[in-house]
Design a protein that fits this description.
Helix content: 40-55%
Strand content: under 5%
Oligomer: single chain
Number of strands: 2
Radius of gyration: 27 Å
Shape: elongated
Number of domains: 2
Largest sheet: 2 strands, antiparallel
Distance between the termini: 53 Å
Strand order of the largest sheet: 1-2
Number of helices: 10
Order of helices and strands: HEHEHHHHHHHH
Length: about 230
């Protein structure tokens, strides 16, 4: 079973939240985003609309962080013959929204992205994005497996857990991920009445004179009609 299938199976799990990255600056550079003139209401309350407008007023990730995230999310959920990877599914946009909607995650996320470049420089003398894919994987292997990671990487493990959980959530709630899972949502079906074996088990049966009226697939959309005495007409 590949990584994508494993993630598909564990999507019922809960997200890590309220995690703390120690030793990293909590300062956030605020970048003004282009103003948006319209936010579809979709039955939003005034308070919800206010929050959405505030979220759209600034950008959290800078261009260098976005470049790293585009690589990281595709390492977590790469493209394959069945679907595009997490980057093309728009997961980084989802991460941007979550960082602004749940600001408690900001320090851990930004600190983790800084740790990745620091570790790449220490190990290979280059930023993470300039490494080969093999060397990038070697760095992530240090923090990708909580049960075997060394104690000094504890906070980096928390970062990668957060990133992996949010990547999976963003992917499998996107149109791409929903299509990949084969989720159809509420779809109409055909009901042919209570199965005969169930009726027999409860000593029940359908009135034979109405059998042709009860089950007419070609008339499933027709509204039933009754006489004044409650008898089914058609």
């Amino acid at each position: 079973m590949d990584r994508r299938e494993n993630l598909k199976l564990i999507m019922a799990g809960t997200l890590a939240s309220s995690l703390v990255w120690s030793g990293c600056s909590t300062e956030t550079k605020i970048v003004q985003a282009p103003a948006k003139t319209y936010i579809p209401p979709y039955a939003r309350t005034d308070e919800e609309l206010k929050i959405l407008r505030e979220i759209d007023e600034f950008t959290f990730f800078n261009e260098f962080e976005i470049a790293k995230l585009n690589v990281l999310v595709d390492i977590i959920i790469p493209s394959d013959e069945n679907s595009v990877g997490a980057k093309d599914a728009g997961v980084v946009d989802f991460l941007e929204f979550i960082m602004k909607d749940q600001p408690d995650n900001q320090t851990l996320m930004r600190g983790g992205l800084m740790w990745i470049d620091f570790t790449a420089d220490e190990a290979y003398g280059k930023p993470f994005l300039e490494l080969t894919s093999e060397n990038q994987t070697q760095i992530l292997d240090l923090i990708a497996y909580p049960d075997t990671a060394e104690p000094q990487f504890k906070n980096a493990v928390l970062f990668f857990n957060l990133l992996r959980n949010l990547t999976a959530t963003g992917y499998f709630t996107s149109q791409t991920g929903i299509k990949y899972m084969g989720y159809l949502g509420n779809t109409p079906n055909i009901w042919n009445g209570v199965p005969e074996e169930v009726m027999k088990e409860h000593q029940l049966s359908l009135d034979s004179k109405y059998m042709d009226v009860y089950l007419k697939p070609e008339e499933r959309d027709a509204v039933a009609q009754w006489d004044d005495n409650g008898n089914l007409i058609a």
